[in-house]
Automatic annotation (TrEMBL):
It is found in: Membrane. This is DUF423 domain-containing protein. Keywords: Membrane, Transmembrane, Transmembrane helix. InterPro entries: DUF423. Its main location: membrane. Belongs to the UPF0382 family.
Length: 118
């Protein structure tokens, strides 16, 4: 839950900066940062829902794995894009696909949880 709070706060603050202070960045950089921000905010909210779900009902393995994968996805997808583009560290771009795969796996785990609860 701490991570969700920090990630949500960062999403709001970074979004405000990108909308106002980030206007001097190249348009392709702004676009990539905007995509990373959208993915971060969307998956932060989804992680919050999963954590609340895990508090209400005894958490199953798929829900726990989904939570971990959403967290890893945010770190490996969104955060690596931010660092790569703002601080010009291209090597971190190698982790971005791992973040995307983590997001995909998290969603599949939620689908499995749904199947298990039919």
């Amino acid at each position: 839950m701490i991570f969700v709070g920090i990630s949500g706060c960062f999403s709001v603050l970074f979004g405000a900066w990108l909308a106002h202070g980030g206007q001097s960045l190249a348009s392709n950089v702004q676009s990539s940062l905007s995509t990373a921000l959208q993915y971060q905010l969307f998956h932060t909210i989804t992680l919050l829902v999963c954590l609340v779900w895990a508090k209400i009902k005894p958490p199953s393995k798929p829900v726990i794995i989904a939570c971990i994968c959403f967290l890893l996805g945010i770190l490996c997808f969104s955060c690596t894009i931010y660092i790569k583009l703002i601080f010009e560290v291209p090597l971190l771009g190698k982790l971005t696909p791992i973040g995307g795969m983590s997001f995909a796996l998290a969603w599949l785990m939620l689908a499995l949880e749904g199947k298990n609860n039919l």
